[in-house]
Amino acid sequence: MIHVEPIQVGEYTFIGVEVKLPKTTLISISNDRGYIMCGALDVGLLNDRLADRKIIAARAVGVRTLKELLEAPMESVTAEAEALGIQPGVPGYEALLKMV
């Protein structure tokens, strides 16, 4: 099952997506510039093999809901996200606001 909902962060609206898979759920919150995601995100792959795409993304581990993703500290971030000032440890909502 796929669930999509608008997520309000301050005055900005993002898109929250939950994809229910056997024994796990993929969770992401995005806008047209970047996204934050659950632990399934491979930041190393984005930084190494897909560096030319300049993907702005951050990863949180141990989250099970969109609300948890918004509050969780980002465990790792892409080089492009870091260039915007998104650092590991910032909560998801702060990372998203830097992607506006």
From TrEMBL:
Task: Identify the Gene3D superfamilies for this entry.
Answer: Hypothetical protein YunC
Per its UniProt record, what Pfam families does this chain match? DUF1805
Q: Which InterPro entries match?
A: DUF1805 (IPR014931), YunC_sf (IPR036493)
Name the record gives this protein: YunC family protein
The organism's lineage is: Bacteria, Bacillati, Bacillota, Bacilli, Bacillales
